[in-house]
User: What shape does this take?
Amino acid sequence: MPEATIDHIDFDKLNAEAISQPVVQHIFTADPSAHVFNGRIYIYPSHDVENDIPFDDLGSHFAMEDYHVLSMDDPHGMATDHGVALHLKDVPWADKQLWAPDANEKDGVYYLFFPAKDKEGIFRIGVARSSAPEGPFVAEPMPIKGSYSIDPAVFIDDDGSAYMYFGGIWGGQLQRWQTGVFLHEQEGPLAYLPKDNEPALCAKIARLSDDLLSFAEQPKDVVILDENGKPLLAGDHERRFFEASWLHKYNGRYYFSYSTGDTHLLCYAIGDSPYGPFTYAGRILEPVVGWTSHHSIASFNNKWYLFYHDSSLSKGVTHLRCVKVAELHYDEHGFIKTLHPYPQS
Ligand code: FUB
Assistant: This one.
């Protein structure tokens, strides 16, 4: 990942023009997964930290060690920080890099789903449980069997079925799992990626077991089709999946949204089943300050909101981000109106 070029940005001007401001400013937060529990908005973000790890294209400098849960009684206000909800030292199988989490609730139990590198340097996805949405959470002793890569997002459909969407290319290692075993002979974030004229790698979906602690099936591809019904190609950098899966349901249809990574866009695709296929439908958010873009979408009091992040609070430091929220609007056909994070810039 190239370091953001920040010298040319007037941050006072940019912040004044931004469509939203950080929901907390005392810590750096990113990758917000938002849910409404008991009438309150809960945000499950990554907790970004300063460190001396050199910048690289694998994201090694994203060296997060714990999670804090934030909550808000109104999307336009500041958030409450509930403190440490889970720490790396309390996850028996994990070694480093607590990346983007998600959470959900079933039968009064709150589940935190999170990726981390295990002791062999392989990203796995773990689960932790709590009796309260803000935690503290107690981690299972082992990651989900058969899990890999990053960025879990758990969607529970109206019939109670729960699905995990996950995956991320480059530092998220998804490209290393194409044969079903972790490929490690070649080095670097671009090894094992398909060629530009080949189908893009897909996010994964797996239905979860009733207790939300394991996969109930082998993960399957989340296929995104173009306007001709063909899977997006790997060279289609402005539309293909990179990381940051999210699934929400709007007017009975399934909206799969994601980041395009190296082109810094949040995009979405629409389908008629949680498994897809999904047809590419457009952009949700134009690039923000910083390299990564990540999000969630939630409804509160009959309005829809995009929870996202940028690096404005740190004045452009890529791995020191801040969570923001902005209202989302749909047109009469169900298409999302693209947001411009700094409309005048
Ligand atoms: O926060 C670490 C990683 O950066 C996330 O897992 C990705 O989605 C990107 O936001």
